[in-house]
Design goal:
This protein is of the alpha+beta class. Helix content is 20%, strand content 16%. Strand 1 and strand 2 form a beta hairpin.
Amino acid sequence: MPKVKTHKGASKRLTLTPTGKLMHRTMGQDHFNARETGKVTKNKRRDQVLHKSSDKLKSLIPYK
């Protein structure tokens, strides 16, 4: 059986935790952040867990 190819776009944007959850960067961090409240700015520094309905994306990064 041949190896499964990794989807490079998904591997750059998603990480798989040891427990099997998919994590991604919080959106909206590039610019226009001066107007955000401190609470929003602090929350944007954290990665977010993808929803359970996105578990089919795990097949795109089989070797992570």
